[in-house]
Amino acid sequence: MSYLARITQNCPTAVVLLVDQSGSMAEPARWNGQAVTKAQAVASAINTLLAELVARSRRDGGYQHYYDIAVLGYSGSEVRSLLPTIGSERFLSPEVLSDNPAEVRDVQRIRTLPGGRQVATVMREKVWVRPAAEWNTPMGAAFGEAHRLLKAWCAKYKGRPCYPPTVINITDGEATDGTPKQLAAAAEKLRSLSTADGNVLLLNVHISGSGREPVLFPASADELPEDRYARLLFDISSPMPALYRDEIALMTGRRAADTGGVRGMAYHANITDLVRMMNIGTATSNLLL
């Protein structure tokens, strides 16, 4: 296990977000102090992450091609790109992503000043992903499509020391297009893809509006409730590289030395947990050249 390759224009990495857009994503959630649906909150969190990846890639001379980025939504029996379509390409570079938002809108942000006074600031915000919630949860098909994309991506960069692709699956329920055994096989096939620096990382974030205590980055299945689906998500999630130990320790309250072997998963996470999980899963800024 390496996961230490420098990320350059000649050796970028890939980030694939898989987004559950099934009917249960219409259930209520809280985000930024407002009552919204899970779908709305997840879309907002993803747009914030995409803006961060674009910002990281900005240099004086323009944008560096550090990332290939894809966002795939799955519901009913369909897996589709949630980013603006540029021909048939599902991966977008930071520059292309920045130039092709689905919408640009003014949003009001509340800032608290050092003295405690709050002020409202209007900011321009780019939107790429819009919320949706309908039908079933074809998670197995989403893993299969991610495998298809990343198999071609890994072949394109074969022989180059590229930091391995990261896949973050955001869901609130069980797959409806296969048995647990079939889902585990699809996930294992996806994780088996690799670059010279390591295998694909698969993180699974189960979100919930129940208010239950979340389990974040467990090191053992014994940390999870007696729930078949929770154990399945643990089994199919990747162990996290040492690169992320400090961030995981800060989020979970563990010592960094105690984060070895933790899996990239969350169960009963809220939207704030999701944001922090995604930030940790893509915390490669110290590898950028």
Could you please describe the fold and organization of this structure?
This protein has seven helices and 15 strands. With 289 residues, the chain is an alpha/beta fold. The chain has one domain (13-287): von Willebrand factor, type A domain (Rossmann fold). A seven-stranded mixed beta sheet has the order 7-6-1-10-13-15-14, sandwiched between helices. β8 and β9 (118-127) form a beta hairpin. α1 (38-56) packs parallel to α7, α3 packs parallel to α4 (180-191) and α4 packs parallel to α5 (228-236). The longest helix has 19 residues, at 38-56. The mean pLDDT is 93.
Helices and strands, with pairings:
Elements: E1 13-20, E2 28-31, E3 34-37, H1 38-56, E4 58-59, E5 62-63, E6 67-75, E7 78-81, H2 94-99, E8 103-112, E9 118-127, H3 139-156, E10 166-171, H4 180-191, E11 194-195, E12 198-199, E13 201-207, E14 215-216, H5 228-236, H6 245-252, E15 265-269, H7 271-281
Parallel strand pairs: 1-6, 1-10, 10-13, 13-15
Antiparallel strand pairs: 2-3, 4-5, 6-7, 8-9, 11-12, 14-15
Helix pairs in contact: 1-7, 3-4, 4-5
The number of domains is: 1
Give the total of beta strands: 15
Average residue pLDDT: 93
Q: What gap, in angstroms, lies between the N and C termini?
A: 21 Å
Largest sheet: 7 strands, mixed
CATH topology: Rossmann fold
CATH class: Alpha Beta
Give the name of the CATH architecture: 3-Layer(aba) Sandwich
> Beta fraction of the residues?
25-35%
Q: How much helix is in the residues? A: 25-40%
- Strand arrangement across the biggest beta sheet: 7-6-1-10-13-15-14
What is the approximate shape? globular
CATH superfamily: von Willebrand factor, type A domain
The SS-based structural class is: alpha/beta
Task: Indicate the radius of gyration in whole angstroms.
Answer: 18 Å
Count helical runs. Answer: 7
Order of helices and strands: EEEHEEEEHEEHEHEEEEHHEH
* Poorly predicted regions: none
Oligomeric composition of the shown chains:
single chain
